[in-house]
Design goal:
Elements lengths: L1 E11 L2 E12 L2 E6 L6 H8 L7 E6 L2 E2 L4 H10 E3 L12 H12 L7 H6 L15 H15 L3 E5 L7 H15 L4 E5 L3 H7 L2 E5 L4 E5 L8 E5 L16 E3 L3 E5 L5 H14 L5 E3 L3 H9 L5 E2 L2
Parallel strand pairs: 3-8, 3-9, 6-7, 7-8
Antiparallel strand pairs: 1-2, 1-4, 4-5, 9-10, 11-13, 11-14, 12-13, 12-15
Helix pairs in contact: 3-5, 6-7
The structure holds adenosine-5'-triphosphate (ATP).
Adenosine-5'-triphosphate binds next to helix 1.
């Protein structure tokens, strides 16, 4: 399966939010969709699923183009689900009834939802009314509803909102499991380090397009990464070309061209100067984010 988006332009009135967006996603992928607030992540989901009209462009899934006809939109809604908004939950229904409802709408094979409930640690509260749920309990319910719907394409907007670290880890591992069924999952999130735990590729969205994509598996450049105040930068000596100093505290020094002894020496110096962890590896989503969106606060040191 593929999801192919071509030259998609989306406007609210005269305000063009996204212009000529292009991307192609193969099945069995989780894409992290990343951008500052107000860039257009939710708008992109809304447009692909046709909750809002698109002004130009095409959406093709598995070779079929889905146009703006009611027949196409109905067919699209059978294969794409959008993470429910907590406001859409029915306060006087219990969690089980919500999960059953999503399963029954999308799933003819009446998938067993008990496994989902247990996997998401919801047994103790799923039969209680939603009005008794905390934010994190509601969020897990919304996630369980999508898993029960089990569609080929899933848009997950801010799924980690309100989840504690244990539940963030739980949801991340369930995402990795369901991806294996050949799904296309797009997750919009501001938890950048967490995205590195499950996303295969990150799309950095810009006012105009998918500005940059990053695939950790294909990243070959290794960096020494650590935190250091501006006043201590001089103690690292002459830094190699393409060293990044991001957000006035984060340093990423490329190791290409450095011998092992030099790499070890820099690592040791950085460990002495840094109060946080120092590591060796490729740039992560967080570092790419700072490089792309906070460009004026980062600079190459040479
Ligand atoms: N219904 C609407 N009418 C008019 N403008 C809208 C509407 N919804 C969103 N916008 C505008 O579209 C732009 C993109 O908003 P969107 O909600 O898609 O951003 P986002 O990247 O999802 O942000 P966040 O990270 O805050 O969720 C913003 O400028 C916003 O003001």
């Amino acid at each position: 399966m593929t999801l192919d988006v071509r030259n998609l332009t989306i406007k609210y009135g005269d305000h063009t939010v996204l212009s000529e967006v292009n991307f192609n996603i193969e099945d069995g992928s989780i894409i992290g969709l990343v951008a500052p607030n107000g860039t257009g992540k939710t708008t992109l989901f809304n447009a692909i699923i046709r909750f809002i009209p698109i002004h130009e462009g095409s959406i093709t899934i598995d070779g079929r183009e889905y146009k703006n006809t009611s027949k196409d939109i109905k067919a699209l809604h059978k294969i794409v689900t959008f993470f429910p908004d907590q406001a859409e939950l029915y306060e006087d229904f219990n969690g089980y009834e919500h999960i059953e409802m999503y399963r029954d709408i999308w799933n003819k094979d009446k998938k067993n939802i008990d496994d989902i409930i247990t996997r998401l640690n919801m047994d103790s509260y799923v039969k209680n009314k939603v009005k008794t749920y905390s934010l994190g309990m509601r969020q897990r319910l919304c996630f369980a509803m999508m898993i029960a719907a089990n569609t080929k394409v899933m848009f997950m907007d801010e799924i980690m909102n309100g989840l504690d670290p244990v539940n963030v880890e739980l949801v991340s591992s369930v995402l990795r499991e369901i991806k294996e069924d050949g799904k296309i999952i797009i997750v919009a999130s501001h938890l950048l380090d967490n995205l590195d735990e499950y996303a295969d590729e990150i799309f950095f969205l810009d006012q105009k397009d998918v500005y940059y994509t990053y695939n950790r598996e294909k990243e070959t450049d290794e960096y020494i990464k650590g935190f250091i105040g501006k006043e201590n930068l001089g103690q690292l000596g002459t830094l190699p070309e393409h060293t990044l100093y991001l957000n006035n505290d984060r340093i990423c020094i490329p190791t290409s061209g450095l011998d092992r002894d030099t790499v070890n020496a820099v690592l040791n110096t950085l460990r002495d100067l840094s109060d946080r962890s120092v590591s060796l590896g490729p740039l992560g989503t967080n570092e790419h984010y700072l490089r792309i969106y906070k460009g004026e606060q980062s600079h190459e040191t040479s």
